[in-house]
Amino acid sequence: MTNVLLLGAGFTADERARLTETFDSVSAAQAEDVAKIDASTRAGIKAVAFKGHMPLGAAIMDQLAGLGVIANFGVGYDAIDVTAASARGIKVTNTPDVLNDDVADLAVAMLLAQSRNMIVGDARARTGLWAKEGELPLNRKASGSSVGIVGLGRIGREIADRLAAFKMDIHYSSRSEKQTPGWTYHSDVVSLASAVDFLVIALVGGAETEKHVSAEAIAALGPRGVVVNISRGTTVDEAALLDALESGAIAGAGLDVFMNEPNIDPRFAALDNVVLQPHQGSGTVETRTAMAVLQHDNIAAFLAGQDLLTPVN
Amino acid sequence: MTNVLLLGAGFTADERARLTETFDSVSAAQAEDVAKIDASTRAGIKAVAFKGHMPLGAAIMDQLAGLGVIANFGVGYDAIDVTAASARGIKVTNTPDVLNDDVADLAVAMLLAQSRNMIVGDARARTGLWAKEGELPLNRKASGSSVGIVGLGRIGREIADRLAAFKMDIHYSSRSEKQTPGWTYHSDVVSLASAVDFLVIALVGGAETEKHVSAEAIAALGPRGVVVNISRGTTVDEAALLDALESGAIAGAGLDVFMNEPNIDPRFAALDNVVLQPHQGSGTVETRTAMAVLQHDNIAAFLAGQDLLTPVN
């Protein structure tokens, strides 16, 4: 009997196959497609395999009377209304840790690429402009500079561990001070931003962290400041960020996440002081496979009545 | 009396000013301009401040009968015929160490950018292709992979120290085994290439290392192999590298150095599996300033009859 719903348009063929080969399943690409599943099938759904960023709230949950688990593909589950899920006795799982390395790699790579103007550099070498106009204008040293990690969770820690090898002076902000190798703790993000050149945002998404990196924090970063964001577009005041990037109030940014992805603000396209990436933090074959396996295994555990591997509620 | 010759077309205004404000100097942009300096001025030249990659050999040295030191701007002095200099009692200095961090940063950045397809990623986010065609195809995890450093000198060591923070399995080749934290030594580059996915070339340039990364080494790297070169274009068999990149015999490359810079082989421009940079390894304000100071100070030491700071012969 069909008991798993694949919800979301973003599953790859491999990810879909991993689920459909094990489970008796039905699919809904969009939220409104759930209602189109016939009522008896819907009533049998015990698990949702969710991938994407569409809001998954009470309206969908209430169409699935037998739902017991929502297994999210990704560590960030801010699209899911966990309060509504908990109120209905629905468990939520995510895919933590398996993507930490990739996300941290991309954060460091964007910091270095912005600092060394590598997007412009590639074009200069590739198009022959190097021969015509000479060297790239001098850019900026990354090693030995100061960095602030906003949110020293598991991903933030991986980023800091890498940047320590670049001899950076590491500062961080978080709800409470952590055990670190002598890194400098700031209880608020404005203090953090005023102390460093590079500000790397590694927060969880959701309402609590909305615009946590505020206009005030961006202003505190100053004209040598660079914002790197691999968390969620919501965690930074994007309008203030765009203003600061356009005016030179800060030096630049490296951004993997945006408001309204993939329809990002066209103002970003005109900036020559940013490195942009299409939300590919976990986008490697190795890591997406590990995420798919973990999503699958959470559902399998639930259906077998076993403990969930990575519950969030 | 004029006793310093600024030789090379690449001095920036700041670099030129640093030299001309201290020293009584004359300039020659190209090799053939040396002969155009009047004979009595030429006879008074005691020091050459050299910047660039034009060959500086016996023909130039023999036009400067009073020359005592050639102070190179850069760590790599393969453009200077040191044997000819030594035979004439001319000392050569370079600018080591002050650029190690920047060059290592760029090596790591190119490795990550190639692995994560960041040049294509930036264009996808920037042009709106993300909204039209969706996510970037999955790429490849960098952390935890295996890397081989060809030449574990001071720059190679800085690269390895950084990549260790990415949990990479570190191998290296060099003339002799070094003290390392348990990294794997290979006495030859083909053995090294066959053991790793990423091959990072950190050799000195010059005749001894010409095509050290041979066609055989490139073949040994295999279809998941990526070549990163921040040394000199001469250190790799570039024709074999281009063939391998075009055929898929290796996966890709990140290259800051080429044969015939800046007129690089147009075959590079057509490749979508490479990250190209216009020889900007040391190209930051901070590091180029430190290099200019060191070049200046070597000349000042020589003219004052003091020990050279960073002699190479």
Q: Can you walk through the features of this model?
A:
The structure is a homodimer of 313-residue chains. Chain A is an alpha/beta fold. Chain A folds into 2 domains: 4-96 and 285-303, 3-Layer(aba) Sandwich (Rossmann fold), CATH 3.40.50; 100-276, NAD(P)-binding Rossmann-like Domain (Rossmann fold), CATH 3.40.50.720. Chain A has 12 helices and 12 strands. Chain A has a 7-stranded parallel β-sheet with strand order 8-7-6-9-10-11-12. In chain A, strands 2-1-3-4-5 form a 5-stranded parallel β-sheet. In chain A, helix 8 (154-164) links the parallel strand 6 (146-150) and strand 7. In chain A, helix 5 (100-115) packs across helix 8 (154-164) and helix 9 (189-195) packs parallel to helix 10 (215-221). The interface between A and B is large, with 62 and 62 residues.
**Gyration radius of chain A, rounded:** 21 Å
Q: N-to-C terminal Cα separation of chain A, in Å? A: 27 Å
Oligomer category:
homodimer
Report the mean per-residue pLDDT of chain A as an integer.
97
> Could you name the CATH class of the largest domain in chain A?
Alpha Beta
Low-confidence stretches of chain A: none
Number of helices of chain A: 12
Largest sheet of chain A: 7 strands, parallel
| Strand line-up in the sheet with most strands of chain A | 8-7-6-9-10-11-12
CATH superfamily of the largest domain in chain A: NAD(P)-binding Rossmann-like Domain
The CATH architecture classification of the largest domain in chain A is 3-Layer(aba) Sandwich
Using a beta-carbon cutoff below 8 angstroms, give the protein chain pair with the largest interface and the number of residues from each chain: A-B, 62 and 62 residues
> What is the number of E strands of chain A?
12
CATH fold label of the largest domain in chain A:
Rossmann fold
- How much of the sequence lies in strands of chain A comes to 15-25%
- What is the domain tally of chain A? 2
The portion of residues assigned to helices of chain A is: 25-40%
**SSE topology string of chain A:** EHEHEHEHEHHHEHEEHEHEHEEH
Envelope shape of chain A: elongated
Structural class of chain A: alpha/beta
